[in-house]
Design brief:
Helices cover 41% and strands 9% of the residues. The longest helix is centred in the last third of the chain and has 15 residues. It is mostly helical. Helix 2 links the parallel strand 1 and strand 2. It has a domain of 46 residues. Helix 1 packs across helix 2 and helix 2 runs parallel beside helix 3. The mean pLDDT is 84. It is globular and about 30 Å long. The protein starts with 25 loop residues before the first helix and ends with a helix. It has three helices and two strands; from the N terminus they run αβαβα. A two-stranded parallel sheet has the order 1-2. One of its GO terms (molecular function) is DNA binding. This is DNA methylase N-4/N-6 domain-containing protein. Keywords: Methyltransferase, Transferase.
């Protein structure tokens, strides 16, 4: 049991060995960004992962800012988003 004086903290070291398990279908993400974002709006994804939200934003004409702590996923996301921009 956690007590108030024992905070639950996640660090890159404590998460080592984990894999990206929440990849979302691009079609679902396109629907969701259209549903919740005003035309010409900006979407912030502070846990970008492999970039599904960014791909959806670019496809639908929204501006996008993505952040992720894992450099490997940033590279993957950048490549996936760039492929949609072409």
């Amino acid at each position: 049991m956690l007590r108030a004086e024992e905070p639950l903290v996640f660090t890159p070291e404590s998460m080592s060995g984990s894999s990206q398990t929440t990849i979302k279908p691009p079609s679902l993400m396109r629907y969701l960004v259209r549903l919740v974002t005003r035309p010409g709006g900006l979407v912030l994804d502070p846990f970008m992962g492999s970039g599904s939200t960014g791909m959806a934003c670019v496809s639908e004409g929204f501006d996008f800012v993505g952040i992720d702590i894992t450099p490997e996923y940033v590279e993957i996301a950048n490549a996936r988003i760039a492929a949609v921009q072409k």
